[in-house]
Amino acid sequence: xxxxxxxxxxxxxxxxxxxxxxxxxxxxxxxxxxxxxxxxxxxxxxxxxxxxxxxxxxxxxxxxxxxxxxxxxxxxxxxxxxxxxxxxxxxxxxxxxxxxxxxxxxxxxxxxxxxxxxxxxxxxxxxxxxxxxxxxxxxxxxxxxxxxxxxxxxxxxxxxxxxxxxxxxxxxxxxxxxxxxxxxxxxxxxxxxxxxxxxxxxxxxxxxxxxxxxxxxxxxxxxxxxxxxxxxxxxxxxxxxxxxxxxxxxxxxxxxxxxxxxxxxxxxxxxxxxxxxxxxxxxxxxxxxxxxxxxxxxxxxxxxxxxxxxxxxxxxxxxxxxxxx
Length: 325
Prior knowledge:
With 325 residues, the chain is α/β, with parallel strands linked by helices. The protein has twelve helices and 14 strands.
């Protein structure tokens, strides 16, 4: 079949068996979705001493419009990274194989992140085995992601997109959870949820939508309560983030209008966004019919937990309604 087969083995560690075959594309094969535009033209370093792995990753990266530079050793990686940095063409991401012959690439990761010239490159570790606590350990080393091999095209694209959406210094400061396969699976379960943001401040609006997208949700925005009610009537949304203070129709009034028009079990979760944490705000939100409230500026962890709880409850209600039907 024009392919190869081989094995890489280390005493006391284990063995990796690999093979390659040449296969044509099915006439019915379709790409589910085009790669994100943000990946076009990115420059990625791939460090692996296995030629088959390098070829496979190069093919995956090229299909996204990414320039891939491949090296087979840590020394080569540091050399090419330094040269590219001097030329003003540093890498946005480096994919590092965890176990290469005679070298643990977490050590290379430490050296890269300790060098002020190179630490702008986001690091993603590719490993054949995972152990409890690995994610925390790699995050502490400054890695943006850790994926199990063989890496699928979808996992690679989503991991790169998430890594590039966050500034390198944020990965070093560990303000974001390290990207793993489990995190990617969780995000995919969120893709089906569509959230509406009602916020009159343009900056707050963008921050809210971007935060939701980083959490894996689809989000749209409107600028006042009247538009929020109209958007709710379309039936396209599963949850609303409702700013309390908006011109013309504020969040409280918009929520009251929605609640008065809901019929049967058609209850959409509404989370109030308020700049006030004063006593009595929670009661005012409850009286308007809001399910919860979050103070601004948005706290990502608090928002994540609130959304997860309300959407889990919504999923359970919908499942129960389906069973009854």
